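in:
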């Protein structure tokens, strides 16, 4: 009877050791999965420059709109969620790439009276939140820095959908719209002095590829 009890006790100890090792192994596996999710969960998206445009429009003497684009700009987005509701967005545009299809006007806009592109070569916008409103509609809040001045902005965003394009990447398309006031950035003279409206419409059609 004593020998039998000793045998069972030794087997239990051995079984207990195996169970402890198995438990430790499971915990290590779970920890590794959590660490991987935390470290690598964010997905980065960057601009498809050939299929993205950044536009602006200003009223001229109250009777017509003069439109332009920035030929050089980039958008970067990081997000963990598939619906982008936690996205962080950053845009950088080169002030010297302004194009209104009139060289004299473009040179004037790049000069000291307007963008002063030599001293302030880039325009930046960085999100503080990217919230889903309803369906494919989002609201982007953040800060824009232009002409050495930073102010908060809120733009509307429409998520246009997904596709695998000729870049061979999973690609998302967005349309961004909003308005800014020149006077907030000390950009150019008054509408009476320049003939250019104070409120500027801004919109962008952007395709960003998954990296």
């Amino acid at each position: 009877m004593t020998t039998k009890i000793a045998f069972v006790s030794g087997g239990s100890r051995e079984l207990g050791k195996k169970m402890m090792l198995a438990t430790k192994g499971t915990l290590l596996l779970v920890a590794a999965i959590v660490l991987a999710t935390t470290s690598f969960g964010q997905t980065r998206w960057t601009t498809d420059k050939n299929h993205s445009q950044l536009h602006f429009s200003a009223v001229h003497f109250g009777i017509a709109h003069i439109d332009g684009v920035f030929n050089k700009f980039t958008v970067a987005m990081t997000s963990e969620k598939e619906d982008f509701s936690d996205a962080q967005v950053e845009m950088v545009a080169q002030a010297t790439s302004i194009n209104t299809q009139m060289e004299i006007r473009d040179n004037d806009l790049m000069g000291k009276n307007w963008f002063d592109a030599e001293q302030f070569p880039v325009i930046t916008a960085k999100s503080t939140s990217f919230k889903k409103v309803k369906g494919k509609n989002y609201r982007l809040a953040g800060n824009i820095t232009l002409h050495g001045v930073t102010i908060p902005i809120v733009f509307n965003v429409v998520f246009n959908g997904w596709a695998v394009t000729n870049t061979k990447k999973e690609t998302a398309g967005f349309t961004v719209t909003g308005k800014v006031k020149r006077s907030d950035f000390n950009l150019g003279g008054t509408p009476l002095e320049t003939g250019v409206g104070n409120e500027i419409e801004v919109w962008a059609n952007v395709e960003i590829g998954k990296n």
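note: Residues 1-9, 27-40 have pLDDT under 50 and may be disordered.
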